[in-house]
Amino acid sequence: MEKKIRLRYAPSPTGFLHIGNTRTALFNYLLAKHYQGAFILRIEDTDVERNVEGAIASQLDNLRWLGIEPDETIDKPGQYGPYTQLERLQTYEEYANKLLAAKKAYYCFCTAQELEASREKQLVQGYASPRYDRRCYRLSEAEVNEKLKNNVPTSIRFFVPDNESYDFNDLVRGPVHFESKDLGDWVIIKSNGIPTYNFAVVIDDILMEISHVVRGEEHISNTPKQLMIYRAFEKEPPIFAHLTLIVNEQHKKLSKRDGHLMQFISQYRKIGYLPNAIFNFIALLGWSPLGEEEIFIKEELIKIFDETRLSKSPSMFDVKKLTWMNNLYIKKMSDEEYLAFTKPFLASAYDLTNKADDWLTMLLLIFKKELQYGQEIVALTKPFFVQVTELSSETIGMLNNLNNYQELITEFRNQINQLTNWKEISIKEIISMLGKTLNVKGKDLFMPIRIFASHQEHGPELAKVIYLLGKEQVIKNIDNLLNSNEK
Ligand code: GLU
């Protein structure tokens, strides 16, 4: 029988969904779905002090928003639950007991102070990486039973066999080799009864029949410990893929302390980045398809995802590229979708009660081509809602470079003022007729009109901008500039 394909994303509830853990979730998801397998989301909450309230609900919500829907998870249990480690303590205990019975693990009664003293002694003796000195391993059975009877706090340590090697063929790194002599006996169950990550993760991956483990490269050094547990239970380990780092534009590891860089999905979601753009962008962080094409929707990515094409070098988190992609996906929206997407941003910033639907629709649509993210519509449409008093330095620069515009602007103002039929087409006609009669064209025609009428040096189609600003506002804008230029 062919092995089932089951992958998992196993966040610790220590934080919110950021670029790095989204990439891990996404690659697990894509690989699972590519092989028609299952994608599981399991919560690894054994590091109790570090758990953050609300982190898991928020991670799940944001993953779902991106379209990364688990087949099994806390609120959607399958036959392998529970999906939260703190609800599985009994299972870890059972498995630890099996190791104890087989003498592959032993009770350790050392206190934190004793362990620290032994560590320091080894450091003084010149051991660069001190390890547990196995003093509890040497306790007799009677001594152990005595301590257990007296409720001396105890942890359970895994006995690392001598002279063993641990090899795996990482999908990203290729062959990786570790030797047991470099590792000391390590704790699998802490004295509070809670398992350590390296133990719980393996028990869960075995019981949940996980076929592939895709995770960040910081877990490579944990892998030999995990392989020991598979070997102790005579279980076949999964296939591992340790993804390379994500770096910032300075080629430094992405750090949550890079305050200036938005790294959380919720931040992008809030300001109007689209889920399919983020999905597409993150799929290319450490993976690339064959060929030059970069724009793929979820279904295409599932189809073409190929685990042999995971990148061996770090990938750069390039916000400009994400924004470029987002604009692309905005442009791909139907006009209806686009209007439904942008209107709430506008409504949150301006009073739209007296605005006609047609006017709003036209206003939003003129920015469809250039809009990079939803929230940007607020800044782009500002001149249509509030009087722009301060010109940007670019606009002032352009204004100062204009020559011979007096007649053009005066004429334009007159014609606009006399216009009774306020329509885009009539405005267009005025502009083209002025061009002909005054013999100006191109930039010499459009730039002065644009600056005087809208107080901006660039923007969407000029006649549409003028139409949307309305006669009164256009005249006001022109007069403001004419007056201030005469001073
Ligand atoms: N809970 C671990 C983490 O958040 C999961 C590591 C793994 O996938 O094995 O890093």
Automatic annotation (TrEMBL):
Family matches, as Pfam families? Anticodon_2, tRNA-synt_1c
- Decide whether keyword Cytoplasm is in the record: yes
Q: Where is the Aminoacyl-tRNA synthetase class I anticodon-binding domain?
A: 343-480
Question: Gene3D superfamilies, per this entry?
Answer: 1.10.10.350, HUPs (3.40.50.620)
Q: Which GO terms describe its molecular function?
A: ATP binding; glutamate-tRNA ligase activity; tRNA binding; zinc ion binding
Residues forming the motif 'KMSKS' region are: 253-257
Return the motif ranges for 'HIGH' region: 11-21
**GO CC annotations on file:** cytosol
Keyword Ligase annotated: yes
Q: List ligand-binding residues for ATP.
A: 256
Q: Which CDD domains match?
A: GluRS_core
The record's catalysed reaction(s) read: tRNA(Glu) + L-glutamate + ATP = L-glutamyl-tRNA(Glu) + AMP + diphosphate
The Glutamyl/glutaminyl-tRNA synthetase class Ib catalytic domain is annotated at 4-324
The protein's matches in InterPro entries, at most eight in alphabetical order, are given as: aa-tRNA-synth_I_cd-bd, aa-tRNA-synth_I_codon-bd_sub2, aa-tRNA-synth_I_CS, aa_tRNA-synth_I_cd-bd_sf, Glu-tRNA-ligase_bac/mito, Glu/Gln-tRNA-synth, Glu/Gln-tRNA-synth_Ib_cat-dom, GluQ/Sye
Subcellular location per UniProt equals: Cytoplasm
- Broadest EC class assigned to this enzyme: ligase
Q: How does it assemble?
A: Monomer.
Q: Which family does it belong to?
A: Belongs to the class-I aminoacyl-tRNA synthetase family. Glutamate--tRNA ligase type 1 subfamily.
Q: What is this protein called?
A: Glutamate--tRNA ligase
Which gene is transcribed and translated to give this protein?
gltX
